[in-house]
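Sequence in, structure out. Go.
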Amino acid sequence: MVEWPILSGQIPPVVASHVARQETGLSLASLTTQTTLLVPAKDTARSLDGLGGTGKTSLAAALATECHHTQTAHLVVWVTATGRDAVLTGYAQALRDLGEGPYQGESPEHAAGRFLAGLNRPDLRWLVVLDEVADPAAVDGLWPAGPAGRVLVTTRNPAAAAAAPGPRTVEVGVFSPREALNYLFAGARLDVGERAGAFDLAAELAFSPVALRHAAAFLTATELDCGEYRSHFTQRRQGAARVFADGLGSAVAAAWSLSRDLADQLGPAGLAGRAMALVSMLSPQGIPYQVLSSQAARAYLTEPAGFVAEETQLRAALGNLRRAGLITINEGSPARTVLAPEVVQALTRRYLPAAESQRAARAAADALAQAWSDHDPAPAIAQALRDSTARLHDLAGTLLLSPECHPAILRAGRSLDTAGLVGPAVAYWTALASAIQQAPGPEHPQTAAVRDLLAAAYQASGRAGEAVGIYEGVLADREQALGPAHPDTLAARGRLAESYVEAGRADDAVGIAERAAASAVAAAGPDHPDTLAARANLASAYLGAGLNDQAMAAFRQVLPRMESVLGPDHPGTMATRSGLADACRQAGRLKEAIALGKRALADRERVTGPDHPDTVSARTGLAAAYRGAKKPKDALGLYERIVADRERLQGTGHPDTILARCELAVTYLSARKFGQSIPQYERALTDSEQALGYNHPITESVRDDLNEAARAAQSVIGIDLRSPRPASRSLLARRVTVVP
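Output:
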C-alpha cells in the first residue's frame, strides 16, 4: 500500500553545514513557475572551465528534501538525468513507487509515458528534479507537466531545457559574504577566538562554495584557526595561479590541494590519494560501493606495495577523503554511495601524471567489470554503473577499446538491452560500433560482435529493415574473413535468417536458412547443437513463409534429435515443439496441434513456471488450436486465463493485454455469445484509447472489430448491444495518450 508523501529516487545528502541561499539562490516558496533552471553564473563557469562547483545540485537537493519533509508536495522525484536511459529509468522507478507498475514486460518508454500522464492530475502536488541535464536528447518528449507540479532542473547547458514548458532561469554563482561566513562557521565549528580573520579568509577563497567546503573541512580536521589556514592557503595559491589565471580558479585549486594532501597524510597514509584518483575516473553523480570495494579497486589502492588492500583500509581511505571535504558518502545508498564534485574530480585528474592516469582508468574499468559481474543489479544500481562506465569511457577513450573492447564497456550496453531501453541501446551500440572501427579496427572479431549487438538493438526497437542491413554486412565480412563453414559464420547466417523473418522477407529467410542448415551439417555434423539450431531456424522460416507442409516436415525431423541430444526440457527443444504445434494448426491439422500444444504448455509450466512469457505464449497457441477445432468451451477457459494473466503481469493498458482481450471477444463471438463478446470488445477499446491513444493502430483495429461484432449480433438477435459512449470520450483519450 502506498504511503504519502512519496519520495522517489536518491536525493544527494544535504550536509549538516548547509546554509540556505536566500541571497544567491532561491527558496522553495519561490518555485512559482512550471520549470526552474539552475545554471552556473557566467563568470563562475568561465573561471572553472565549465566544471560546476557553484552548488547547483546542493541547492536542488536541499529544496527537494525540504519539500518532502514539509509535505509541500505529495510526490518528490529525484532523477539523475545523465542520459535518456537515466531519465526513463527514474520515471519507471517513480511509477513503481506510486504502486502502479511497471508491469512485467512493459517497456521503460511505456512506463515513463504512464508516469508522465499521471502527473496531469489536478489534485496531485509534485516536484520533479532533473539533476545535471547535459543533452537535450535526454529529455526530448519527457518533460513533466501538470497543473499542480513543478520541475527543477540543474544544468550547465541552458539549451538542454529549451523544450521545457515555461522555463525560468536562475544563475547560481558564489556565496554572498554573509552566506560564506555562515557556511564557514557551520562547517568548521570554530570558537570565537578561532573566527578572527574569517571574513578575510572567505574573501581569499573567492566565496566559492567548493573552496569553502574544503577550508571548513580542513579547519575542523586540524583545529587550525582561520589565520593559520590562510597562511598555508596563500602559499598554495601562488602555485595554482600559474595554472589558473583568475582568482576563483586558483582559489579552488589551492583549497583542493590542501585538502588532498591532508587526506593522504591521515592514516593509513598514502591510500586516500590513490582512492581519489580512482573516484575521479567515475561518475560525479554517485559511485556504487561495490565498485570501490571490488578486488580491482582495492588492488589499485596498494599497488605500489604489491598487495590487495583490505576493505577496512578502503573504508579508512574513503573516510579520510570525506573528512577532508573531497567527497560525500551516502551510507544509505548502495547505488550512489560515494559522490565527488566534478570540479574536484577534474583537479585530481589534471595533476595526475599521464602514466598514473592510465593506470587509474584501467583499474576503474576492471572494478566496473567486477561490479557488473557480481549479480544482476537492481535498476538503480545498473543505472549508476552505466553512468560511471559512460564517464570513464569519455575520459579514457581508445584506452578501453584497444587491443580489444574492455568488458565493462560491453556490459554497460548489454544492460540497456536487458532493461528494454531500446532507444538508448541503439544509440549506445551505434556510437560504440563507430568508435571500434578505429580501434581495434574493422578486421578485429570484436568489431563484428558489436555490429551484431547493434543489429539486435535495432530489431528490439522495431527497426527490422536496418537490422537486416547490418546482419548482411556482418555475414559478408565473416564469410570473407573466416570462410563459409566457420561457427561464427554459421551463427551470423542464422541471425540474418531470423531478421529476414521479422522484416517480412519470407523468401529471403527461407533461402538463407536453407544455406545455413546445409553449411552447419557439412561443418559440424547432423547432431551438433549448432546444426540442430540451424535446422529449427529453417523450420521457423518455412512457417513464416506460409510453407506449412515444409515447416511440419522440418520440425518433425529436428524435434526427436533435439530431444535426444539437448534433452526434452532444453529451451530450444521446447520452442521447437511449440513451433511444430503452430505449423500443424496453420496447416489445419488441429487434432495434432492440440496434442502438441498440451505437451508444450505442460512442459513450459513445469520448467519455466505458469507466469513466464513463453508459458503464456504456449497457452495462447493451444487456445487458438481449440478455437480452430471449434471447441469454444476449451478455448474460452484458456483465453479467460490468458487475459487474467496479462492484466496481472502487464496491466490493463499493455498492448498484449488488449489483444488478448480481443481474442477472448472473438472466441465469445464464434460461440455466438454476443452478450459476453461485445463488453469485452468495449473494455479493450476503452483500455486502448486511454493507454495507447485514440488514433493508435491497435485502437482503430479494436474499434473496427467492435463495430463488426455489433453488426453481426444485431443481424442475428436484432439488438444493438453496444453501450452508449460519451462524446467527450475521444478528447479524454487524447489528453492521456502515451507512446507504447
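Check: The CA atoms of residues 598 and 631 lie 14 Å apart. Strands lie at 6-8, 35-40, 75-80, 126-131, 149-154, 167-172, 328-329, 338-339.
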